[in-house]
Write a structure and sequence with these properties.
It is a single chain. The protein is α/β, with parallel strands linked by helices and 216 residues long. It folds into two domains: 137 residues, 3-Layer(aba) Sandwich (Rossmann fold), CATH 3.40.50.2300; 55 residues, Orthogonal Bundle (Arc Repressor Mutant, subunit A), CATH 1.10.10. Helices cover 52% and strands 13% of the residues. The protein is built from ten helices and six strands; from the N terminus they run βαβαβαβαβαβααααα. It has a six-stranded parallel β-sheet with strand order 2-1-3-4-5-6, sandwiched between helices. Helix 5 links the parallel strand 5 and strand 6. Helix 2 runs parallel beside helix 3, helix 7 packs across helix 9 and helix 8 packs across helix 9. The longest helix has 15 residues.
Length: 216
């Protein structure tokens, strides 16, 4: 039998944390290695606890779940973040995914769903609860696929990097997000500038934002 997944539970409600810990304790597949009441506490505990998965809420005092996710992913890329939240709106879901969360499950999900989600993200995959998956499918189904492609002269990777540039990310930050070398990013950026006939990042940002390319 494989080793249980080490889980750090992060939520600012004591009773909810206690209930969640009790729920997870019924499974041999997971082991609660610690708990935290805020993103700051979770970050401070990472080096000591060495969790495989951080199971966290989005709405917490202090930096909040989105900022905490970004900081956790940056500080410990091997740690997977799984959001367990009441929020099911598009903005929360996409903000969590952009921040680096590998999964998103709603509070109130069944025990088997939560445990399965923990195991899936621990294995390096992504997972979304049924309600969240339905929202994502609805969102993408509503996109206009008949319109012209933005910047058809760019490759898919170049468009992705241009989106990061439009969000004011630096080359090192883009390299970290994409898991590639900084040299690779620099080469792509040079190609983007040449194809769009711009001299610098400022001009590229203006063009990208005018075209509505502001995300990933």
């Amino acid at each position: 039998m494989s080793e249980p997944v080490r889980v750090l539970v992060v939520d600012d409600h004591d009773h909810f944390r206690a209930g969640l810990k009790a729920l997870l304790a019924t499974s041999d597949e997971v082991e609660v290695c610690g708990e935290a009441a805020s993103g700051e506490e979770a970050l401070a505990a990472l080096p000591r606890l060495q969790p495989d998965v951080v199971l966290l809420d989005l709405v917490m005092p202090g930096m909040g779940g989105i900022a905490a996710t970004e900081r956790i992913v940056a500080a410990a890329p091997h740690v997977r973040v799984l959001v367990l939240s009441m929020a099911d709106d598009d903005d929360s879901v996409f903000a969590a995914v952009r921040a680096g969360a590998r999964g998103y499950v709603l509070k109130g999900a069944r025990r088997v769903e939560i445990i399965r989600s923990i195991r899936v993200v621990a294995d390096g995959e992504a997972i979304f609860g049924p309600a969240i998956a339905a929202r994502l499918m609805g969102f993408f189904a509503g996109l206009d696929r008949t319109g012209p492609e933005v910047f058809p002269e760019l490759t898919a990777r170049e468009r992705q990097i241009l989106g990061h540039i439009a969000r004011h990310l630096t080359n090192p930050q883009i390299a970290e997000r994409l898991g590639v070398s900084q040299k690779t990013v620099r080469n792509h950026v040079s190609n983007i500038f040449a194809k769009l006939q711009v001299a610098d990042r400022a001009q590229a940002i203006v063009i990208a934002r005018d075209a509505g390319l502001t995300g990933e």
